[in-house]
Amino acid sequence: MDLQRRLYGALTEDDAQADAGQVRAFATHFTALTATKLAGGLVDPKLVLSSLLVALGAPGGVIGALVPVREAGALLPQLALAAWIERSRQRKWFWAAGAVGQGIAALGMAAAALTLDGVAAGWAILGCLALLAVCRSAGSASYKDVLARTLDKGTRGTVSGLAGTIGAVGVLIFALLLSLGIIPGTPAAIAMVIAVAGGLLIAAGLIFTWLQEPEAEVGDASQGLGGLRAVFAPLRKDAQLRRYILTRTLLISTALAPPFVVMLSAGQGDSINLGHLGLLVLASSAAAIVSSYIWGRLSDRSSRQTLMFAGIAAAAVLALAAVVGTLTGDLGGAYGAAGFVFAAKIAYEGARAGRKTHLADMDAHGQKAIYTALSNSILGVMLLLGGLFGLLADIAGPALVLGVFAAMAAGGALVAVGLDEVQADAT
């Protein structure tokens, strides 16, 4: 009996230690992710940086390059980083260094906004954004692997969704302060906000170094990544990876749509000016607040269904915007744009949560970093090609582009039906 009690005590003590370790890991992930998500909202190229460059008198070509540089720059370098990451026994350092690098780049943007204007300010901020994007790629390429080895299934989507919600609350506060005039709509004030974002990113990197990460196995897969053939081998061999990448490609419509919603809302001469920036950020933040945690929890149950539902929601919202825009030539100015941005953002959060959790939970055959880098690099190319939709909008109007995006989202939902239920073996 004493032996049984001692054995039982030992088992429960081990379980308690394991649970405590999971709590610490969850807290570290949550704190670091929350800081980066808040910072990302404060340095948003679609709204904040573009408005800042307009106020600084930067050329339109530089302003138009913000989103492609930010999105593709964060994805395309990941294949080059993947082999390095796979050969490392601890991958948290890549994420931490990437976050610190992003913070330094954000501080560079703030300095440029305070000391430069016109063409010089535009190119300086675009260059800092490129650096930020490359540093972000290091974190993106490594994070899924670190997440999968430090947090149990059933909590991975939750930590991302919860951090997204809290981060969105912070961005919402920023939008309210901007809308009420407490934060003035001046380049100097926005530069200080960007500097705060830089500080948050540096703090996130330092916090992430505290994560207790077990050493990863370094096997033949990571030692044989010298050529492109080896890198692309998973794409040839894994049908589920191909289907996941196709689903994700079609659902980039949820990320590309908001600027065209804004463009359509100005179809009859209304302008989306600095006074409306707070309203649009409010709409985007509110959507993230009400949906991020829910999408995260749903992803932990079924990331496949999350991708399906997000695709259906995006198709409905974007199709409605296309129809209304075609019939009326307008979406109701800034308030109409805010409503559609709100709805489209909810769909985007679902696509984002679903694709992140699905990749974290799917069987990557010991090559999580390669799977992440491969899918992200392919998506980076697709996002660069997404710039062609701007030419289509110039020729045929933004309503047609939104109709194309609606069809893409519907196609993404349909393709997602064939994905595996990767959470089926979660405990």
Question: What does this entry look like structurally?
Answer:
There is one protein chain. By secondary structure, this protein is mostly helical. The protein has one domain (28-211, 230-416): Up-down Bundle (Growth Hormone, Chain: A). It contains 19 helices and no strands. It has helices at 2-42, 45-56, 60-64, 66-75, 78-86, 92-115, 118-150, 156-179, 187-208, 220-223, 228-237, 239-250, 253-265, 274-301, 303-328, 333-361, 368-385, 388-396, 398-416. Helix 14 (274-301) runs parallel beside helix 16, helix 15 packs antiparallel against helix 19 and helix 18 crosses helix 19 (398-416). The longest helix has 41 residues, at 2-42. The model is unreliable at 1-11, 219-226 and 268-272 (pLDDT under 50).
Short précis:
This protein has 427 residues and is mainly alpha-helical. Helix content is 81%, strand content 0%. The protein has one domain (28-211, 230-416): MFS general substrate transporter like domains (Growth Hormone, Chain: A).
